[in-house]
Specification:
- By secondary structure, the chain is of the alpha/beta class.
- The protein has one domain: 3-Layer(aba) Sandwich (Rossmann fold).
- Strands 3-2-4-1-5-6 form a six-stranded mixed beta sheet.
- β2, α2 and β3 form a beta-alpha-beta unit.
- α1 packs parallel to α2, α3 crosses α4 and α5 crosses α6.
- The longest helix has 18 residues.
- The radius of gyration is 16 Å and the shape is globular.
- It starts with a strand and ends in a 7-residue tail after the last strand.
């Protein structure tokens, strides 16, 4: 059995108020760094971690480095955990993007599995690369506990894959900054033991 501790990076600008962040390089805020430290302490105290993998984005790597340092490991970057590419929407708010792409924005927020982001990725493309990464890492770490530090969109599609949910349910899963999801993978099947756990962040 491979145990995955799937986490989201810490807080960055653009989460509130919401902007399409995607491939924008955004450093952790002071709150985000505090969240990453609390996440690292929680993981180090609760799990025998063998490896820490992160997205190539700086915010995920910075969060992962906190965990790796606590666990006396070195961060490994995996391109499959990269955040979704929002294309032309990158950096915009929903209202700003809707000026030019009204129909596309409505589709994204109502039927996300049918949306095609202008110049960016679809959820189907994101799902394929994220789950390929998940299964590759599982093969490399049988019977070990592995931390994956990803993004809101990446984590959502991984969890939908593990729960055998369709991409149409994308908006029904919440992923808070520095949350913990715990997934056990054995015999080709997933068991979800924790979902969007944030108790370690109180009273941040």
């Amino acid at each position: 059995m491979t145990r995955f501790i799937l986490a989201r990076h810490g807080h960055v600008e653009g989460i509130e108020p919401v902007r399409f962040r995607g491939r924008l390089e955004l450093p952790l805020t002071e709150l985000g760094r505090s969240q990453a430290q609390a996440l690292a302490a929680c993981i180090q105290g609760a799990y025998p971690v063998s490896a820490v993998y992160t997205s190539p984005m700086g915010r995920a790597m910075e969060t992962g480095q906190q965990i790796a340092a606590k666990c006396k490991l070195v961060v490994q970057v995996h391109a499959g955990l990269h955040d979704i590419d929002y294309g032309a929407w990158q950096g915009l708010t929903r209202q700003e993007a809707a000026i030019q792409w009204t129909q596309e924005i409505n589709l994204w927020f109502n039927l996300p599995h049918l949306a095609r982001l202008p110049g960016g990725e679809s959820l189907q493309v994101l799902l394929v690369r994220a789950t390929d990464a998940l299964h590759d890492i599982a093969k490399a770490h049988p019977d070990e506990t592995v931390v994956l530090v990803g993004h809101d969109s990446v984590n959502r599609v991984i969890l939908m894959h593990a729960l055998a949910l369709p991409l149409s349910r994308y908006w029904f899963l919440r992923q808070d900054p520095c949350c913990i999801n715990e997934l056990a993978f054995a015999n080709g099947e997933f068991t979800i033991n924790k979902l969007n756990e944030t108790g370690h962040l109180r009273p941040l």
